[in-house]
Each structure stands twice: as C-alpha cells, then as structure tokens.
Amino acid sequence: MLDRVTIERMRAWAGDQPVLVGLSGGGDSVALLHLLVDELGAENVRTLTIDHAMRAGSDWDARHACDLAGDAGIQGRVIFPLKWAPGAKPGQEGARHARYRAMCGHAGRVGVTVIAVGHTADDQAETMLMRAANGSTWRGLASISPFAFAPVWPEGRGIAVARPLLGVRRAALREYLTARNARWIEDPANANSAYERVRVRQCLGELEAAGFNPLRLNALAARLRQRADRLDQAAFALIEQAATIAGDIHISFAAWSAPREVRFRALAALIAAAAGASRELPLADVEQIEPRIMSREHRGSTHSGVVFEPAKDGVVLKREPAAIMGRSGGAAPLPPLALVTAEEAIWDGRYSVTPSVAGLQLVPAPDGLFTVIGNHMPSDLEIRPLVKDRIRHAFAPDINRAKP
Question: Is residue 398 part of a domain?
Fold first, then answer.
C-alpha cells in the first residue's frame, strides 16, 4: 500500500532520525502508523496527536489516539493541545495551519526531519475539486504533493511532509485495519456538512455511484504536479541567475529574462522571502506587481510588507519598516522576542539569532531589522539571514534530490 518512491525519499531525508506520524486516531492515520511500523520498525517511528480543542470530547479522542499508538508498539507518543483566543472560530483552514505549525514546532524540538501524514487518494480528489470550485490556478489543481517541505514558515524549515498513501482509497485502508483487528476513531466532524470538504466528499460519492471514477481527478493532478515541478525548477534557476541575495534581494534587469509564468513564480517566492512570510501572494497580485517594479520608470513602491526600491540596474526588495514597527491606526508592531541562551530564535521569519549570553531580547528597528536589548558584545550573538532558506523552502531543490 505504501508508495515505494515516497518511502525511499522519506528514508533519504530522515537519515538516521525517526519518522514522526501525525496521528489523529482516524482510520487513515492509524493505517499509516501500522504500515510504517511494519516498514521501518516501531523503534523508528514516533507519533504526535494534535488536540484541535474545537469541540467537546476532542481531548478524549487525543488520549484514545495516543493509546492506539501504544497498541502499535510506539514508545514516543505526544499529545499537543492547540490554544485559541476566546471566541475564536478558526475554521478548517485555520485549524490546518495551526496543526502544521504545531507539528513542525515539535519536530524541530526533537530533531525530526520527516512528518508522515495519512492523506489518501480520496483526499487528493476532494482537494482538487475544492480548489477548482474556488477558482484555483492550474498550480493549485496539482493539489497534494506526495513529498514536499511543510506548508508553513519558519516552523517548517528543513522539515519534509510525506504522504505515502496518496494512491490508496480510504475504503481499502479500513479493510486493511479490519483484517488486522486494529481499532480506530470515527471523527464526527467527517459527517458534518457544515464543512466544505464533507460536502465535496458527499458530492464525489454521488458522482461515483453514478459511474464517475474519482481517480481520474488524481491522474490529472499527478500530471499537473509534474508540470508544477518543472515550473519550480525553472523559477529557481531564474532566481540563481538574476538575484543577488543577502539580507535584501537585488534583482538584475538584464538577467531577469524568462517566460512570464516563470518570472511570476520566481517573484512570488522572492516577495515571500523578503517579507519572511509563510504564504506567497496570489498570482493576480504578482501579475500586477512584476511589470511595475521591473520598469526603469519605477520610482519605488510597497506591497505586502515589502519595499521595492529602484536600483541603478534593477530593483531591491527589502522589508518594509512599518510592517514590523507598526502603523498608525493599523497593524501593531512585532512584539519583543526574548532570547534563550544557546537556543535559536527566529525573528520575523527572516533571521536566525542564537545568543551565547542570557537576558537579551529583540525589538523592531526603524530600518526594518531589529535592535538587541540587554548587555552583550557583537560576538555574543550568532545572526544568520534566512532569505535563501525561505527561497529553498519554496522550491525544495534539496528535498527533490532525496530520491531513490
């Protein structure tokens, strides 16, 4: 059942570290857990269960999921409860983002570089249909990747998410679990038609009953994924050719030469890197920005927390100071960041800062950087820009070499 290419890429990226399974306790994740224990051995698997704390009884389900991991022989089992502001209604997308941030945060703390999740062929078809209904571009219709960097930044830095069950139907996993007398939890949210995915799932079920094969959507997604990978390779090559990167990003007019689709993909990643952002701008925004900033008549502009500053032979992308210092009547300034001795801290998604002395904190500075508060010498801080890391996170050139 496990996709062999994805498993080998998992092994290559994880090295001698265990694999962390995101375990909800549902049939998909429990089946993945048992299959990976059979494949890798229980000693090489850990589990993390996220309690979303969005309904009564979720804490019981999390404890039950942890017990199911014990049934599979897993020693390293952790439950992580999410915390929401009073009255918050994050919805499924907000919960997903918080879940990945929590999983990646835990993985980083324990030194794990691969998280395995139980997405199935049904999830792939549902995702493609949902994105099509919401007007996604063709890149969005490529849907779920079997092996990619985690979809959050900076928590997901260097952490791969593997989905070795993307080719398997949900019903087949239930049959597998039943055959081995394994237990799992049925989440009542999976039957709640208030959620878009549940409605799409019901729609696909009706289409399948009428003779439509949902796996045709998956075949199309796979072809689009290949095209998306080729676009990413071309965009990354353009960045290497045209951009000089340190704390800021300098794009050369003369070297910024590629098909428009490649240029837009590259620029979206560069803007996210300059802002330290987790998400890239929509294509429609990038299509408006690119011709403006790459014109020799451009006199400077800002967008999404980034300053586009004209240079003699190109344009410089740097962090907009107001985005971290705060705006009058608008966004609040970034809060102070307390540093812990010998522990890496990430400032604004753009800088890695590791102190060798205690009692320091970072606060926003008017130049778009930060000021260090507390007694220290320059040598007491190891500071490294993360702009290049953020770009590699977008295109995953390293992770794509983790192939059998």
Answer: no
